[in-house]
Amino acid sequence: MVAQKKLGVTDPDEWNEPLLPAIPNTNTDAYTHTHTNTQTHTHTNTHTHTHQASSRSKRGDAREFFLSRERNLSLSVLLLLGCFSALLVPAYLPSGTPLWTNDSTPAANKALLDHSAALLEGVCLRGRSRSRLGSVPFADRLSEVGVFLQSEEAGPWELGPPLGLRGVGQTLKDALSTLTESGLPPQLNGSTCRRCAVVGSGGVLHGSQLGAHIDQHDIIIRMNNAPVFGFERDAGSRTSIRLLYPEGAPLLEREYQNTSLLALVPFKALDLYWLSSVVARTPLSWWSRLWFWRQVVENVPLQPRNFRILNPDIMHRAGLVLQDYAQQPRTMVPTLGVCAVVMALQVCDEVSLAGFGYDLQHPASRLHYYETLRMGAMATQVVHDVGAETRFLRQMVKVGVVNDLTGAI
């Protein structure tokens, strides 16, 4: 419109004559009639095309509004993953706030080291821990429990794994047939008075400098994949017994060095099949691998004499005791940490704990001594009652059944 308007006027400032000659007024009516008909015809065609385009656009919009089945499924999966990420990922990311460690409290750290040194310098008293179990309500159920299974007829199993072994008789028999020894090996059974250190994975162990004191114990018990290499200063350098289930076994071969025993805690029948495979050095079938909830190690550099199966009665009895410390009645599945404490009470005269305790009041504090996973991740687990376990262990420390080397219980 602007170009046509410029062509029909005279610009007196730049030119002294019209840019184009004026259109004569003869045939004005004919021109007007013809122009009008042309506009009407054009308008009609334009309206028709516009209506058709509008109809196609609406149908296209309708098709785009409803997602295809494949896109709907993909979007649902993305939304579900997004929700889980919003809940879980923040607990696994490094925090901008300083993580709670003993490094920031040197005075308290020195007090813990002095306490640990005093315990080691004192005279070991035979049966000290078990003799004080009577001071803990219901803890008498934890005395005189068999530690390792020696045959498939070890007990009348009323419950299935992990609290018993009902329904897995043949699988258990096959697993036991691969083991060449039972009980404690000679190197762990020679002392007349045995001191045990049960080393948890708690972040409180980070910066504790307790490694040299832990190594002075006769038996050192660890759980799952808690590492030693690179953390010797805080966690010690050797392992007497490592309690684990397949998904929690260390993937790195070096973590099995300086290890006397691996004790399987069977949570399912497949765990016993895994043990048979590892001991006999036969590969797992692809079908078996599908049923583990994470990657499992298939090559453990230990001999058949270094493997054991933990007696499920230890977990069962510990669960019964924990029911009395729970705020609501429920079937208890104890953590491997509590199972390790109960096991230590059977084989040791004095029991000390290091790396135990959950600082749930500070979600940004360190959960494990070997990674930056934060305490808030505990809010996502529903299997264990850590509150009941804390109350139970606190009572055990109070009456002197166990010693708390890191002071977090």
The CATH level-2 architecture is identified as: Alpha-Beta Complex
Give start-end ranges of low-pLDDT stretches: 1-51, 61-66, 86-104
So how many helices?
A: 13
State mean pLDDT (0 to 100 scale). Answer: 80
Q: Report strand order across the widest sheet.
A: 5-4-3-2-1-6-7
Biased composition (Low complexity): 33-43
Region (Disordered): 1-59
GO molecular function: exo-alpha-sialidase activity; lactosylceramide alpha-2,3-sialyltransferase activity
InterPro entries: Glyco_trans_29, Glycosyltransferase_29, GT29-like_sf
Question: Can you tag this structure with a few keywords?
Answer:
globular, alpha/beta, 8% strand, sialyltransferase cstii, chain A, glycoprotein, glycosyltransferase, disordered N terminus, seven-stranded parallel β-sheet
Written description of the protein model:
- The protein has helices at residues 2-7, 28-65, 69-92, 106-121, 128-131, 169-177, 211-214, 232-235, 269-280, 286-289, 312-323, 336-347, 386-398; strands at residues 195-199, 219-223, 239-244, 259-264, 307-309, 350-354, 402-404.
- The longest helix is centred in the first third of the chain and has 38 residues, at 28-65.
- Mean pLDDT is 80; it is low at 1-51, 61-66 and 86-104.
- Helix 6 (169-177) packs parallel to helix 9 (269-280).
- With 409 residues, it is of the alpha/beta class.
- The protein has one domain (102-404): Alpha-Beta Complex (sialyltransferase cstii, chain A), CATH 3.90.1480.
- The chain has a seven-stranded parallel β-sheet with strand order 5-4-3-2-1-6-7, sandwiched between helices.
- The chain is built from 13 helices and seven strands.
- The protein is 39% helix and 8% strand.
